[in-house]
Amino acid sequence: MGKRKLVVIGNGMAGARAVEEVLARGGADMFDITMFGDEPYGNYNRILLSNVLNGSQYPADIVMNPLDWYRDNGITLHAGSPVTDIDRAAKTVRSAAGVHVSYDHLMIATGSRAFIPPVEGMTGADGQLRHGVYAFRTLDDCDGIIAKAKESRQAAVIGGGLLGLEAARGLINHGCKVHVIHIGKHLMEQQLDGPAGAMLRSAMEAMGVEVHLHKSTTAVLGDERGITGLAFKDGTTVECDLIVVSAGIRPNAEIGMRCGLTVERAIVVDDHMRSIDDPDVYVVGECAQHRGRVYGLVAPLWDQAKVLAEHITGRNRQAAYHGSKLATKLKVMGVEVAAMGITEPTEERDEVVQFTEPKRGTYKKLIVRDGRLVGGILMGDISKAAYLMQAFDRDTPLPEERLSLLFDIGAPAEKVTLEEMPGEAQVCNCNGVTKAAIGACVAGGARNASAVMKATRGGMGCGSCKGLINELVDFFCGGEAEEDPSIHYYVPGVPLSTTDLIDAIVANDLRSVSSVFKVLAGGKEDPSSKPGLANLLSTVWKGEYEDERDARFINDRMHGNIQKDGTFSVVPEMPGGVCTPDELKRIADVAVKYKIPLVKLTGGQRIDLVGVPRDDLPGVWKELGMPAGHAWGKSYRTCKSCIGTDHCRFGLGDSMALATKIERRFRGIDSPGKLKLATAGCPRNCSEAYVKDIGAVAIGDDKWEIYIGGAAGAHIRKGDLLCVVGSHDEALQVMGRFMQYYRETAKWKERTYSYVERVGLAKIKSIVIDDSEGIGDRLDKSIQQSIDAYRDPWLEGQQPATPNQFTSLVPAEG
Amino acid sequence: MADSFNLGPLAGLPTGEGRTFKLGDRRVAVFRTREGAVYATQASCPHRTGPLADGLLGGHSLVCPLHDWMFDLRTGQSLNGACGIKTYVARVELNGSVTVEVDDEDEIVASFDVGVRQGMTSDIATDAAR
Ligand code: SRM
Ligand SMILES: Cc1cc2nc3c(=O)[nH]c(=O)nc-3n(C[C@H](O)[C@H](O)[C@H](O)COP(=O)(O)OP(=O)(O)OC[C@H]3O[C@@H](n4cnc5c(N)ncnc54)[C@H](O)[C@@H]3O)c2cc1C
Ligand code: SF4
Ligand code: FES
Questions:
Q1: Is B114 close to A514, i.e. CB distance below 8 A?
Q2: N or C: where does chain A have the smaller number of CB atoms within 10 Å of the terminal CB?
């Protein structure tokens, strides 16, 4: 029997998911699938646009079905090609690009679009939104908003619902002043009651968003040069040069109407997700109206897609959709809100359980009817959200002890809850993953949470269900979930821990990165693991390894930090922030001669020549006549210092001299993560030594406290006191020994702040200070060998290691 | 229409690395894999114009140096995103020299790129997302 033709209109979350469900039921053998999408991309996770807008994810991170997926599954995709007509009599569809195809079955999954309220000045003469006004629905919208936000000073979001607040939060990150304009009495009226709305408002205002309630927008102000503000019915105005409209959605149902399907608020479907007018036309997602309801969230469409797939593939012709109950979480960093069902009691028998702590921004309210949850609002502390959403969705009876609904009091045995949880219960709402799907994945061989997450996409959306997934995986593994083994590997591409890898490298006499892959990773070269291996080989073999240049990250090939435009930065060594007037002059001369775009003091107490094209690097290095500052690699970086005893009236130790000795000794030493050091002349800590990978703080009588594992970058941690030493030399010895132990036992890119926590201070102390394993001498020798093997990489400027190393554009021969 | 360019002997390309060449009006990244094959692609990453020739190679996978987008050098297809790159025909001639054919098809630019958080390393970006 030949394959039937399945044509899908709409390549969004519902369309792509329905096709995935069809394929999962052997659909590839039954159907030739053609998909049309208005947007020019594969399917992406629309709900994560909020993260793209706030900058925490890249567009590439939210792609769910890349173009390869379509190809691999034999699906013909017409992206960027909206369908304009459906001819139900002839069973064909036609797209704007002129593609004309026939179908046996049609699936309409056109979703919805932003509702644009009829406000004066919102659209231009062409009916399109005018420049500076954006909807918030697609990647292109997001792109437009971000580009505009860069030059914008004040932004206004029309609509104080879920989406509007997420947009407002995102805009804050682009540095504009943000207003939220809301027509209602309080924010998120659909999901919250008055008090919760008021608390949410304070939380948003604390973040710098100005909230305007009871405002009905009447006009967008401005002229052909751009928009300047908004005017409201009450005569007031707000200044803004960027507007995001988030005032609700409208289903894209016109296409159904034009071909004669019944359309009310959206295209009307039966319980099999078929149009009530035509058994060959299925409708799924936000463009479908089922039992009078139209949905605007993803959870319903996961269920709809399953029913549709069961039906169309004939797996189960009785499969029926019964509607969904809605629960939501607000995806605004710093404000935790979860809500479900009704917001106020509506019947006399409704019982309200409530707790408020306005100072801490905590608000919890549950509405219970006949012992079951019919509504709930959680703000501030949403730790019970997973449980409550489940109870709400499944209509399960609630415990008599109502207090336990709001708080974990002697937590109910977790196991029981997981066991009771029905298989169809949605665990990950972002990607529609059920408890049963996690169970199946475990049954199929996955033994740890990261493998399950990778296979099911569960937990890969907003991430709020990761904890539950971990618990479930453990539950399905009978409490014996394995850890993801790769978290113990030095690099992901070679399945060995750091110490095992070093042993294997030595035992097999492996001296190049390619030979490590050959012998220890089955010959499979993982590009991202190469720099880590090159670094480790240099730690193991010192100068005596085969330096394959391609294994190095570009920074380590060019001995500078690559910048966004492909140029490099040049930071010469300047121990403790000290340089001679002569050096300062040379830096200035070089900057003038080579027209260096930017000369900047770094946070590491030295001078950065920024924006040097690679062709100039050899010249710049040579004329500076200063050693490399190693501001680019995973290696020893710098040692900052305060003034210390030489000049400071409080100084208890010579911090500048110690910093200089440290830098001259450890310069360029490779290490799993960056090593940033500092010395402070007294505990006033002006050079921030407490928050460095290694810090030395003078406490008088030539004594220095040595701290390790401090950080003040993306993570902030005060270092742990490793020991107190009695001289500069002792300080250098302890530091070197710790560095070497770290080099031999840490994972690639593991900074000391996580390493020290993982290994434990006690263990590090016993090895480095008490020499409990008797390896102290060996560690000292080993770091000394690395120090002896050091060679200033900038010398390479005069003797390039590879052809055209310092040429940005190589001409052809002809 | 394709113009053929001679890039000189294979030895001019270091093993496992890439270089950016000026071929007519175009900038083209040319790579030599560890296995000895030669590939040519557009020079700039479709994401944010990162210099692809400076990326890391493993087999035929290429990782852009700026934010780790990955591409298959043989086909130009993306290995971790939605957007691929343009490839050019490249080969090693019998006499050992490298030839690249430059056609005038468009290079690929990710149309949905949004320029947020420039210079953020991808692992920090995903950290923040967690
Ligand atoms: C140049 C400099 C900024 C400046 O102008 O002051 C700088 C620039 C960069 N830092 Fe930094 N950091 C600079 C001082 C710091 C400091 C302050 C310090 O050293 O006292 C910190 C906090 C201390 C720390 O690391 O704990 C710092 C914490 C980071 C981090 C966060 C590391 C972490 O795990 O918390 C990153 C990201 C990373 O490593 O992945 C980073 C990454 C970067 C990179 C390399 C981004 C990258 O991965 O490409 C930046 C290169 C920009 C460029 O175009 O060259 N930079 N960076 C500073 C150079 C100092 C120097 O002289 O060597
Ligand atoms: C910023 C944002 C945040 C959100 N956050 C959440 C959240 O946290 N939780 C939640 O549950 N929901 C959230 N949502 C809602 C969720 O994204 C939608 O419910 C979901 O995307 C609906 O899927 P769909 O397939 O019906 O529509 P869509 O995903 O919009 O897909 C429809 C696709 O069809 C295309 N199309 C339309 N007409 C045609 C045509 N004629 N021919 C071809 N193609 C066409 C459209 O371009 C679109 O790509 C959010 C939405 C946005 C915009
Ligand atoms: S903080 Fe560091 S990594 Fe971030 S933009 Fe500044 S220099 Fe770049
Ligand atoms: S520029 Fe290539 S990944 Fe960003």
A1: no
A2: N
Of A146, A714, A807, the CB nearest to B115: A146
Ligand number nearest to the C-alpha of A431? 2
pLDDT tens for each residue of A356-414: 998 888 999 999 999 999 999 999 888 888 788 888 988 888 888 888 888 876 544 44
Q: CB of A104 within 8 A of CB of A83?
A: no
Cβ distance of B16 and A57 shorter than 8 Å: no
Alpha carbon of B105: minimum distance to chain A alpha carbons (Å): 19
Q: What are phi and psi of A171, to 5 degrees?
A: -65, -35
User: Is residue A648 annotated as involved in ligand binding?
Assistant: yes
Structure confidence at residue A1 (pLDDT):
61
CA of A636 to the centre of ligand 3 (A): 19
pLDDT tens digits for A599-636?
Answer: 999 999 999 999 999 999 999 999 999 999 999 999 99
Closest chain A C-alpha to B17 CA, distance in angstroms: 5
Range B2-103 classified under CATH 2.102.10.10: yes
What's the CATH class of domain A426-483? mainly alpha
- Distance, in Å, from the CA atom of A401 to the CA atom of A406, rounded to the nearest integer, reads 10
Burial class (CB in 10 A: 0-12, 13-18, 19+), A7: buried
> How many CB atoms are closer than 10 A to CB A265?
12
Cα separations in angstroms, B110 against A41, A487, A577, A614 = 10, 32, 42, 26
Q: What is the pLDDT of residue B119?
A: 29
CB contact under 8 A, B78 and A66: yes
Q: What is the pLDDT of residue B65?
A: 95
Token pair for A65: 């079905």
Provide, as residue numbers in chain B, all residues whose Cβ is less than 8 Å from the Cβ of A534: none
For residue A300, how many C-alpha atoms fall within 13 Å in the half-sphere facing its CB?
Answer: 24
B64-70 average pLDDT score: 90
Stated pTM of the model: 0.63
- CATH 3.40.1010.10 is right for the domain spanning A4-111+252-313: no
Secondary structure of residue A757 in the 3-state scheme: helix
Which residues 6+ apart lie within 8 Å of B78 measured at CB? A66, A67, A68, B69, B70, B71, B72, B84, B85
pLDDT of residue B117: 30
- What pLDDT was estimated at residue A607? 98
CATH architecture for segment(s) A327-406: 2-Layer Sandwich (3.30)
Burial class (CB in 10 A: 0-12, 13-18, 19+), A82: middle
Q: How many CB atoms lie within 10 A of CB A86?
A: 23
A606 compared with B113, residue with greater pLDDT:
A606
ipTM attached to this prediction? 0.77
What is the pLDDT at residue B114?
Answer: 37
Atom of ligand 1 nearest to the CA of A600: 5
Could you give phi then psi for residue A562, rounded to 5 degrees?
A: -70, 140
Identify whether the C-beta of residue A774 lies closer than 8 Å to the C-beta of residue A780: no
Is A459 close to ligand 2, i.e. is its CB under 6 Å away?
Answer: no
- Residue A599 has a pLDDT of 98
Task: Give the type of residue at A175.
Answer: G
Look at the alpha carbons of A703, A707, A708, A713 in this order and tell me if their dihedral is positive or negative.
negative
A143, B119: Cβ pair inside 8 Å? no
Q: Which residues of chain A lie closer than 8 angstroms to B65, CB-CB?
A: 553-554, 562
CA distance A766 to B103: 65
Place domain A115-250 in its CATH homologous superfamily.
FAD/NAD(P)-binding domain (3.50.50.60)
Closest ligand, as measured to the CA of A258 = 2
Ligand number with the minimum distance to the CA of A714? 1
> Which of 657-716 (A) contact B at CB < 8 A?
714
> Which residues of chain A, if any, have pLDDT below 70?
1, 409-416, 814
Chain A residues within 8 A of B84 when measuring between CB atoms? 67
